[in-house]
Amino acid sequence: MKKLQQQLLDWFQENARELPWRKTYTPYHVWISEIMLQQTQMDRVVDYFNRWISRFPDLKSIAGACEQDVLKLWEGLGYYSRARNIIKSANILVAEYCGKLPADHNQLLKLPGIGKYTAGAIMSIAFNKEYPLVDANIERVFARLFNLAQPVKDKKTSAFIWRKAGDLLPYGKAREFNQALMELGALVCIAKNPRCKICPIKTDCQAFSFDLVAKRPVLNAPAKTIFIEMATGILEQNGRILIQKRKPKGVWANLWEFPGGRLEAGETPEMALVREYLEETELAVGNLKKITTVKHSYTIYRVTLHCYFCSLMDGRLEPVLHGAQEYRWVKPEELSDFALPAGHRKLVDHLQNEMGLFM
User: Fold this and answer.
1) Cβ–Cβ < 8 Å for 130, 171
2) What is the CATH number of the domain that holds 335?
3) Which of 215, 246, 281 is the endpoint of a domain?
4) Residues 87-123: pLDDT tens digits?
5) Please, where are the H alpha helices in the chain?
6) Does residue 302 belong to any structural domain of this protein?
7) So which residues are the catalytic ones?
8) CA 327: distance to chain centroid?
9) Helix, coil or strand: residue 220
10) What's the distance, CA 228 to chain centroid?
């Protein structure tokens, strides 16, 4: 075991990527990076992290921040509940912990949005304490290292992986070792076409010795993909555009959007847009002009968003909201100030970059 530990530590020292949160291992930096890295690729996170730290350099700056400013900075990362939980945790930490993350595993677990993995990451990476952590990369490494024939998400298999992650931790080296395991999974022991020839621990890898690397890890059957068609409309009046703020709970809570919604059976996108405007705002719209079709994904959903310009069909300007909590008529150039769901942000980007509007 000591040999494997040292091989991984030596490999990490030579191959660790230069990441901004590794410069000082500040607990706040580690926390933010770990939350961002959930469901998001590393190459995208680095830029978001740097912008975040520039805008919110410490916990106190988040605790005093406007939620819309935070969501806007998070725009594009998705899973916005992560950003809202950061705000909630920051307020708790400022009020109860003098604006610092506690070096206590149980106290960390009490904070919104911090589970077993994130608490272990903070304890080991920020504070160098002997706490294991298991992410998808480590699951894959251990499934091959120990030739696990059962799905890694099964309860018993997961418990085995977590136990091994703890058993392998070298005393005083938790920071380097946990990162080494994750880095190995990200750079060498990758999902497809793993680079076994350059793996520092291949002589200990059971799947490698049995020529079963391609069959590990065993995964559960993927969830069924759900396809959704939606329509949305940009309504402009007197040089301003109507946007509405989604309700505090549900998908894309508290984000701003252009009115619209899902197509019902037998509807065309145009029919759906007119109906949704009436149902959501009591505004009658028409003169629809197709802009583009945007496709985006979240969790198991694949969304096709049909986008239109539309016009008011009567003189009424004040919407009566039924599906949102607030509305505003904003100048086109002001749209960049609001956090929008991915599909609507892609629509605005299309108007700016492809059509030269809103510049």
Assistant:
1) yes
2) 3.90.79.10
3) 215
4) 999 999 999 999 999 999 999 999 999 999 999 999 9
5) 2-15, 27-37, 42-55, 59-63, 67-74, 81-96, 105-109, 116-121, 136-145, 155-167, 174-187, 206-209, 269-281, 342-353
6) yes
7) 34
8) 26
9) coil
10) 21
